[in-house]
Amino acid sequence: MRKLRFVFVIIFVVSVMLCNITYADNDFTQLSPILNNTSNIDNFNASNTSSTNNTNTNPTSTNTNTTNNNLNYKVVGNEITITGVKQGITTVNIPSTIEGKNVTIIGESAFNRRNDIVSITLPDTLQYIEQFAFLGCENITEIRLPHNLISIGSMAFDSCKSLEKIEIPCNLIDNGIFNGCIKLEKVIFSNGVKKINLFSFKDCNNLKEIRIPSSVTNIEGEWILEDISSATIYVEEGSYAQQYCQEHNIKYVATNGEGQQSQEQQQSQGQQSSEQQKLSQEKQPSQQKQTTEEQKQDPTTASTILPKAGLKYGIILIIILIAIGSGFFYKKHNYWKGVK
Length: 340
Known about the structure:
Leucine-rich repeat, LRR (right-handed beta-alpha superhelix), 7-stranded mixed β-sheet, 5 helices, alpha/beta, flat
């Protein structure tokens, strides 16, 4: 009886240790981003609460009303700030004037987390988009920013996960404006933009094209270049943007100012492509042989390694079989009587 108990204790301890090792490498690492996102949401909600409280502490400077288009807004002097829209509205058309006053501002968190909105039209009178204005609007695929826009606040379009294309008519100074726009493929900066902050495109891993005009004289946020490494940057020949790309080893295409690729770069790229084709043809047979030999010799290929989940359940199954076998073994030798 004592031997039987000792065996089961050993089996239990070993199974717990193996399960902990399996989870330590896999499951806990998957939980970490969830925990981080939860903390970010808490911080974001706290900031929204404080901003709402600050707005309500000065009611005499603004008047809050609702238009016939189900828009919420406030009057500040001779200008209108849009603060939201009625729930359930899928298409939002913001007029250029309300009560005879120009609509110039989209307020902080005005359309925050409004997944019911699929289309929104902004007026040409708009000058400012404040922080968090469209954060988490996951179903907006495209939005036209008016040419009179002066600035965009931080995280204004953060996590707009369906946004595919954007043309930006103003400087990007704040951080994280388009963070997490995972479907964003094309970014065009209008002529006249002078400053760009690349950190505005953190986690935009699907970017394929960024067009930067010659008017840009300042580019920041190079520490985020890995996130946009899949994008090709189109610059004008002899511009600051071209110099920036050369200094930071960023792939780019130089154009002649009309969107066409310069002749020098076409020739150089043609020569490079022909040389690369020759090298690839020469290396292809040797690479195939090398890969086949490595697959034969390498015991850690994907075909020979069990996934972590399969390994975990395989270990548990082995432990169960050992336990059952031990029971039959002791029962056969008359040591099982004391268990009952």
